[in-house]
Automatic annotation (TrEMBL):
UniProt source species: Roseivirga thermotolerans
TM segment ranges: none
Protein name: Alkyl hydroperoxide reductase AhpD
Coiled coil: none
The Carboxymuconolactone decarboxylase-like domain, residue ranges: 25-105
InterPro entries recorded: AhpD-like, CMD-like
Pfam families in the cross-refs: CMD
Length: 116
């Protein structure tokens, strides 16, 4: 199983369990997150790139993978990805480099699945 499929399967399974708990606060938080990334004054592509850069600075590998997946769906180019990576590393400093490595690995996995 690919790292992309493994991540997506796990995320879907756990989100289903969380939603099944029927906790109003968690449901509202998930909804807020969904709505924050909807088209608005900023387009969805810009919002996903911002989310990716913030996730890298905050060093959340799950969030990075999620936003990379969304960026891939939105047809963001590799050149655009590397510009976002460079901004995240500039803001976050050298501590972001391990997350950059994993982000590049995941981005390449997304692209290779597209070519299968």
């Amino acid at each position: 199983m690919s790292i992309v499929q493994e991540f997506n399967d796990y995320r879907a399974k756990m989100n289903e369990k969380i939603m099944a708990a029927d906790n109003k606060v968690l449901k509202r938080f998930f909804n807020l997150d969904t709505n924050a990334y909807a088209e608005g004054a900023l387009d969805v592509k810009t919002k996903e790139i911002v989310g990716l850069a913030c996730s890298m600075v905050l060093r959340c590998d799950d969030c990075i993978k999620y936003h990379l997946g969304k960026c891939h769906e939105l047809k963001i180019t590799t050149a655009e990805m590397y510009e976002a990576f460079s901004i995240a590393n500039l803001i976050g400093g050298s501590i972001v480099i391990p997350h950059l490595r994993r982000a590049v690995e995941y981005w390449e996995a997304l692209q290779s699945e597209e070519n299968v």
